[in-house]
Amino acid sequence: MLGDYSSNFFLRGFFMNSDTIAAIATAMSNSGIGIIRISGKESINIVSNIYVDKNNTKVLNTYKTNTIHYGYIIENEEILDEVMVSVMKSPNSFTTEDTVEINCHGGILVINSILELVIRNGARLAQPGEFTKRAFLNGRIDLSEAEAVMDIISSENEIALKNSVRQLKGSVYNKITELRNEIIYEIAFIESALDDPEHISLDDYPERLNLKMKDLIFKIDKLLSTTENGKIIKEGVNTVIVGKPNAGKSSLLNILAGEEKAIVTDIAGTTRDIIEENIRLHDINLHVIDTAGIRRAEDIIEKIGVEKAKKYTKEADLIIYVVDSSVPLDENDFDIIKLIENKKCIILFNKSDLESKISIGELKEKVNETIKIIKTSTKENTGIEDFEKAVKDLFLNGEININSDIMITNLRHKEALKESLDSLVQVSKSILNNMPEDFYSIDLMSAYKSLGKIIGEEVEEDLVNEIFSKFCMGK
């Protein structure tokens, strides 16, 4: 892996004269421990200027790599804090540079004071994600592994976390490298045959290449098939609760949230504006919006709320339509039914604790037959488990294999896979049309480069900067 990235000449040139950086690697709040991370060729010398051991001796330069030591940070011969200092010498560190981590007490004042002292002694403040960026630029990790670092930090459920850890360990890199090796073999064979036709024959090669294209297209299609579940696991499901006023929408939100997030009264139209809440159901995160009851209102404020409800409904990944079964369907219900056409939707046949004025069969006749209808009572908290299972079935086909090797969760990876797939399909078309072999090479190389974008072997500096700018400070 290290050799692959050393061939990226623009990256090497960008980084060769880099300076020593420092940042706080822990959260900015009072805590037991705070960590200041320093990386670069001067990191050990800089910390040596401000550190003494328990014997009041400056010996940091003599410490072996990957060791941790007890001592003090000093300023003007006064002790600033009692610390543990970790020393990691090049190339045996995350960035592959000399790296020092100062583990101090976790008060905001003391952490900032030590960081400022480090900067005054020659370091500069690191940019967001710059430590991980250096690990990538120095060949320590590939770009997909670098992105996995931030995904681990932002993981909101177990599946997302496990998938990100697998990616950090090289699951995506290994698969993409395998595909690229298969493609480059064919490119090399074609080029060699064209250069030396006397010794390398292309007879029957199109047939063999066509079989290879079918295999590669199948493999990339399989990766792309994981992207929908991957997006849901990583980003969650944009969910909107809709229904007539007083149908039980806000009560449902409160049950899902586990606390009183919305005001619930018997007065229709209590909710005028949207209420948002992030809710975790098993391995799915729902970004839930409780909307104003949809009806043909005259009140100007309520009208605005209804229009907002309709807007969010059109944009939602999932619609939860709460039906008040204790009153007959009316024109407001019919308006809502039009809104949910061709959308992923679950209908809650609510207030089942009361006498029903409509039947589930009557409701089924009005909506798409694929829509799941669940009998609930938000007052008595019944039917909620069935609803949760329906959400999981709708988005995860019942369940996701938590130990699945690869799940594509990154939009950038998805687009690169699509580009590669299109190029391979073009190769198949060229074979079908009996095009010359050098046409195959052009599209094969395009597929090879598209896959290279995922792991950072075919990537521009601007994209690298954009990716790492989304990281947190100190990482």
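The above is record 1. Record 2 follows with the same two-line structure.
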Amino acid sequence: MRKIFLTLLLLLPALTIAGQDRRLSMDECIELSRQNNPRVANAVLSVTAAQAQRHEARASWFPTVSASAGAFKALNPMVSVGLDDVLGSSDAANALRYYAETVAGLGALSTEWSALGQGYAAGLSLTQPLYAGGRIATGNALAALGVKAADAQRDLALRQNDDSVVVKYCDIMALQGKRNALEQGISLTSKLEEDVSVAVNAGLARQSDLMQVQLKKHELQAQLVQLQSGVRLARMDLFNLIGLEYEPDDLDSFELTDNFDALSSPDAYRQDLADKAAAMDENRLLDLSVQEKQLQRTMTLGEALPTVGLGASMGYGQLIGEPRLNGMVYALVSVPLTDWTKTSRKLQRAKCAQQQAENDREYLQKQLAVKVGKDWMELQTAWDLLAAARESLALSEKLEAQKRAEYDAGLCTLAELLQTQTELQTTRIRLVDAQSAYAKALAVWK
């Protein structure tokens, strides 16, 4: 209920009203993307379709009941029997026929019998399969396997969707971090510009020094303009991915609440590599693929086995004589006699397909184990690089403060101070890149 309430709040039309503050966390973006991503929606529909197919397969266990009704009217009776048909064409038969026709004529009787000129019939039949070579049980097992495969495909689609959102969210966070770094650089340069301007007015610095500082400030401001444009484009990309409505002139009112400050070390997410690889959706799909080939082989074998069933029917109608009710019970046994050669070849193909699935599973499971190990190493490497970037920033800040003190004391030139501030700016950006890289590696691992 909390998620539903949160989703309703996020989808309120007020989101498109300019000037309002909006806060979006990474989890909220993931939730919105799951609701609006057509790939996720299709994966969920595949699960529903697989469940419907499983219920369809279960119906094979139960008897089939059918009803039928019909009527007909022929131009001429389909069965007609006269005296010639009964007596033949001998002299005695001709005399007997003449006598019978004479007598029949006196009583207004007909010497010809006909049937099936018109009629009607209605019936109800029931058939219960008893044995179909194991194909009913195998079909139900395949349908149940299809539900598991659809579930795994849905989970995989959700994971891929979440990964896409995390990457785009981290890209925006990185761009915003770089923007903050540029703003800090502009702030330092502006303060230096004020100091140099005072020194120029006092005759302690040259006008060219002031112009050099102003040039550096303008360069940083130009970079900031480009970066702000990049942030807006990245926000548009993210909002389109999660299906969030927005106005182009209102992008800056959205606040992304997550940041890189709460990143924990890899030790907090350590898992057994073999267990993690075994639990992956890809591994589940590989196992299901092998099971499917095994069941398909069993289904092929069932085509060569006998089929046994029981049935009953009851009907009412008039075809010959008076209308009447009738019924019967029956047994059906079907034994394929000429399909053994064809079925044996199909079994060979099914066996080859099963072996191929097992070979693919063995190979790809090793690849998954390699990928999990690679993801863990990349996560540890990203953390080490992040720690190094943090140490570099701390040193750069100390160096900039020292150079500023030396400049104020006249012990270093303005060019040296600007170079130190540029290195500080670069170090801050490297830290943001390291934070973004670790956040993405952590998302992949999690």
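The radius of gyration is 43 Å.
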